[in-house]
Amino acid sequence: MTPTEHTEQEAYAELRAWQRKMQEKPTLLNRFARRVQIRLNALLPERVHEAITAAIKHMVRGVLFGSTHTTRNPVLDVPLAEREAAIRTRVKYYRNTAAAEGAVTGAGGFLLGLADFPLLLGLKLKLLFDIAAFYGYDVKDYTERLYLLHVFQLAFSSQHTRNEVYRQVADWEAYRHTLPTDVHEFDWRTFQQEYRDYIDLAKLAQLVPVIGAAVGAVANYKLLEQLGDTAMNCYRMRYFAARPALEK
């Protein structure tokens, strides 16, 4: 076995372990937490849900669909190991940047803590742009940007929603043909609720005086790490789907 084949075997093994995790059924605790979150969301007036959905929709669209001039060119004809080494370097950079930003905003009190939300969202989406390019995909393609939205949702959702989104991502080449041609038709309500519910506790704790800086740094570090891991495995699925089956 060549070094390249060995590296690909390792990446494939990591992918298979991740796929099993994505397909796990929600645990009793997952189901309980989901019921609680649904009830809490039901307590919010509809106008609040609409305002939050609109805010997140505009923030995400502003970065994801309005930044063609800042995107990297797709990296082509490069071994998987080289691609992933570069990606890990970028994940480390964004992870450390997010941790520093979380520490500063967490130490700055309530109002500055609120400012962390759009800053962190921007870092996450820019990381996805870089990862897509390193795997050789052109995010100027509309459907590739929708793919990034699905990767994002897969990283920051309850296990119940994660099961559903995973099936869509795993069968992307077929699923992409069913996507709406207008990004306004994307299910932004579910997107914002799942994302908000996923990070609520960590981000609320970041607003607490004294501990806010430490919580902000750790929470942002972990969230970027989670996104990087999810994105790498999503693109690995597409990489290995396009290649002959590896010897197990």
Automatic annotation (TrEMBL):
<protein>
    <submittedName>
        <fullName>EcsC family protein</fullName>
    </submittedName>
</protein>
<dbReference type="InterPro" id="IPR024787">
    <property type="entry name" value="EcsC"/>
</dbReference>
<dbReference type="Pfam" id="PF12787">
    <property type="entry name" value="EcsC"/>
</dbReference>
